[in-house]
Amino acid sequence: xTDISSSGSRLFHRLGVSASFDGERLTVDLDPQPGVxxxxxxxxxxxxxxxDVVAAIPIxxxxxxxxxxxxxxxxxxxxxxxxxxxxxxxxLRQGRRSVTCAARLTDPAGxxxxxxxxxxxxxxxxxxxPRKPEISLERASELVGSDERxxxxxxxxxxxxxxxxxxxxxxxxxxxxxxxxxxxxxxxIVALVAEAAAEDLLSAHHGEPVVVTELDxxxxxxxxxxxVRTSARLLGDHPGAPVEVLLTDVxxxxxxxxxxxxxxxxx
Length: 267
Hints:
Helices cover 18% and strands 38% of the residues. It is an alpha+beta fold. The strands form two sheets. It has a twelve-stranded antiparallel beta sheet. The chain starts with 16 loop residues before the first strand and ends with a strand.
């Protein structure tokens, strides 16, 4: 289960996220804190983390297989952070080698905050891979999150360095704090890096802060060494023009993630 670590020390354990299992359905909840907000709005990469957790844990039950995220699409409303956000997932299809799920994220009143789709592929553990936690679904839900919280804004906690904001170039080291138990850069951290690149490029283009509201990710390769650096381009000059973002492992030169994002200026 690549969203769970027995050490409880990873960055994604300090995001204010918790989970519960009632014997039939897993739910994942977010208690928003200032560090995970941008312009008062919950970061879309954090919503992506909720989606990843609520979809991945129920389908990732084989101790000899890793379930890796292959793709994710998140659409969010640019609204002030609600008191809490709840994510509920649905498995749409589960085959021998791939799984497709949907997720709905709502506020305490039941109003939709975001909607998402996510895909996974199952990969056999290789010799030398870290040992995969063998725990029940009930126990897995208990290991999501911790009582710790961020001391700094999420981008700073992750160590994202701004290289060229107008071009959407940022860089992040691949530290143990950002890795999942499989030893690769955790999927929501990848989403955060893509979000940061699009956010910076669009903010420079519009001349005012921008909140990313749409994020499409294709995970192409695992990132173990790093650092990871982005390249980005704005596809057009019309309102709502999307940004294409590529994440590259500088140590190998391999493109690890392909992303598209859209954002809206906020006062």
